[in-house]
Amino acid sequence: MLALALVALALPAAAVPTISAVGSKFFYENGTQYYLKGISYQLTPDDPLINPAQCKRDIARMAELGTNAIRVYHVDPHADHTECMSAFADAGIYLFVDLDTFTTQIEQTDPHWNQTQFDHFKEVLDEFQQFDNTAGVFVGNEVLTTANGSVAAPYVLAAARDIKAYRDHKKYRDIPVGYSAADIADLRPMLQNYLACGKNASQRLDFYSLNAYEWCGHSSYTTSGYNMLQKNATDYPIPIFFSETGCNTPKPRTFEDQAAIFGKQMSGTWSGSIIYEWIEETNDYGLISYGPSATGNAATNTLVEDGYTRQGTPTPVSPDFANLKAQWATLNPTGVALSDYKMAASKISAIECPASTAGGWGVDPNSPLPTLGQKYQKDTDSTMTADGSGSGSGPTGTVTGASASPTKKNTANAVVVVGNPATERLLMGSILLSSMVGLFALWL
């Protein structure tokens, strides 16, 4: 009996139906389609999922809204998240978590993907894969923010490729791997299509999401531009959703866009939305507050950061909290059953990769992805082909080894030509070799 009790104590968060990505949609294990009604939840810069008492207080308020997802941008992979994740699971709330930090994120101005970044991403995945209510992970958030930022896109995809390979090598559940994009008109829909166009599933995202603040105040489906977002996403081969939304100018926030996202205009294509954000801060996007601003007061404990109290009794911000509650209460799309959708999913064709254009999208769709340790460096003299030989047709981008010095140059009009696919096989061989060495050491 004691042994059984000890085993029970060692179990992870309460079991809930897992979420999977099939074709262009998310599904629960029972085959019901999953739509996100999510909240961005980052109470403290380091990790909001390590304070069980606060998690439970916040969950009670989230339940009032009908929340079934949270997004957390930064976590400590070495902390214990069991109690918070279990409490969220009990409430039917799933987690979408970012794998990067401020120091390991992929940079638009100096694109690279190295072992240090990969190791940290793996640590976060190692920690959260154990929880059944981990619904997805992000390999980046708004990495590309300008029209000439497309040179960083292959590095986002390289991170997704390697994390998916690591996930599969470790025999983890197929937790979907995706990206959260800034809403940059000059990059639409090229970035969206590039990240999903790979013929090989291992070299494309499992989902794509957008941080969009286009629908402001009393707008409409066409005036806001949501009709164009829908047009660009029609026939998209992987799930797509809003990873941030909820314009706050003019106030109050009415969240009228939710009716379009969850209604007949978009629910056949989009998988829901995540509202930015839970806690009230200087930016006035909060749905709740834990007390008045403490700006100017000396912080006497860890409850106050950046002038705002970060824990306590969550008090709804009026009328924003009530407005969102009223919107979500009437929006419950049923979607399609997995059993009915499987045939359609099997016939989804690959989307066409965007072609590189002078002064526009700067990624060669035929170029291999960067390999671990490579970084982008603009080359105005020649084009480096996959085998490293020069073709003399610059300006274009090349990749250099991990030992190359960092470069931060203007990347306008550059075309990314990167990598050697053989290195991908070396990466997997290295992972396998490390595992064998570990097992041998254990045997000794």
Automatic annotation (TrEMBL):
The keyword Phosphoprotein does not apply. Keywords: Disulfide bond, Glycoprotein, GPI-anchor, Lipoprotein, Membrane, Signal, Transferase. Residues 371-406 are annotated as: Disordered. It is found in: Cell membrane. Its main location: membrane. GO terms for cellular component: plasma membrane; side of membrane. Its EC number is 2.4.1.-. Residues 396-405 have a biased composition (Low complexity). Residues 1-15 form the signal peptide. GO terms for biological process: fungal-type cell wall (1->3)-beta-D-glucan biosynthetic process; fungal-type cell wall organization. It comes from the Eukaryota. It is a lipid-anchor; GPI-anchor. Pfam families: Glyco_hydro_72. GO terms for molecular function: 1,3-beta-glucanosyltransferase activity. The keyword Membrane applies. Splits internally a 1,3-beta-glucan molecule and transfers the newly generated reducing end (the donor) to the non-reducing end of another 1,3-beta-glucan molecule (the acceptor) forming a 1,3-beta linkage, resulting in the elongation of 1,3-beta-glucan chains in the cell wall. Involved in cell wall morphogenesis. Belongs to the glycosyl hydrolase 72 family. This is 1,3-beta-glucanosyltransferase.
